[in-house]
Specification:
It is built from 19 helices and 12 strands. With 442 residues, it is an alpha/beta fold.
Length: 442
Amino acid sequence: MAEEQLVKESSQLSSYDAYFERIQSRKKLPQSLQEILTAAFANIPVSSFPSVPGGKVIEILADTSIADAVKILSECNILSAPVRNPDAGNNSSEWRDRYLGIIDYSAIVLWVLESAELAAVALSASTATAAGVGAGAVGALGALALGATGPAAVAGLTAAAVGAAVAGGVAADKGMGKDAPTAADKLGEDFYKVILQDEPFKSTTVRSILNSFRWAPFLPVSTDSSMLSVMLLLSKYRLRSVPVIEPGKPDIKNFITQSAVVQGLEGCRGRDWFDCIASKSISDLGLPFMTPDEVVSIQGNELILEAFKRMRENQIGGLPVVGGPKKKIVGNVSIRDIRYLLLEPELFSNFRKLTVMDFLHTIAPQEIGKAIPPLTCKLDSTLGSVIHSLASKLVHRIYVVAEDVEVVGVITLRDVISCFIYEPPSHFDNNLGFAVKEMLKP
């Protein structure tokens, strides 16, 4: 087991190294300038970074329901939040006791997709028994299985049996029979009935999905750490947020996100070092760090559920919506858009048949009545203009388009941060070794 874990850690570290090495090989900044910038960020303490808006980090208790967690994230206009353990008393002096992890939209998407898949299986069976579950198992075992929200079978139950144990009664009431396509056609209405009104989905808590669907580990740094370490965690090591704690104190002092760092870079406009880099075109800096063939996209006439599945499979936070064989960009769908499906289910009664473009038109502001155009730039755009667009629009990616509006690349917050730094020799072992190994723990 220990040997398998070491192999897993080595594999993941290799993937981080490959991404960063690719970026460093494509960047065209003078080595001397990169060394100066990296050294500068290494000398900036995390304590000097601006606090979150309002000065208080938004936390979510572990026993909060998923529905309420989505409301908190949406109302506070944040993508993620630390999860606090209500069982840990205020006297706890260890952050490991007080915080269980980070909840974000990516974890919620994973949970929703599995819920939809289980519900679809369940609704294709007229009774729980038809899926191989005895009537006595419908309540207790069904609740036990999905209360854990994991994909594995529980007590010998298959995923199909688990789904039927929870929603088989719904299918029976509808008289839907065993035809899976028929069940899928009517999944919209019953999907919401299952996850928003029926047990155990209705009572599913943040705690219960935190481990099964973990995408964002809780990996704090201390206030005396360097901003270089934070920027490396947010770029090379793929974290989207980094909690900050004071040494010897368990409470979170600050919560630094990729977006906050890019906004901080935007605030450096006018300084010689920033303007030197920001004035260069993105192509001169090697951006975008992907080929057109590597861009993951979705056609406007495909189902919105497929868009979220594609994000899950590729571990990305958004997709360009394209039309036609030329991949002409017509929209953008983000992982945070899952909140509309959960907070406004009345808008999506035809959930299973809902196309991406229908979804985007539905969530568009009423005064506009159509989907908001995606944020784009061209290969000759300057890095400064890209940073300004990302910071001012509070978005997490900008699409690079050719003259015919064909998508040829994507620039993310992670990519922008990576442009300004490199990893000095021994920095990993001296500053991040323990932290990253914590992140890689199963």
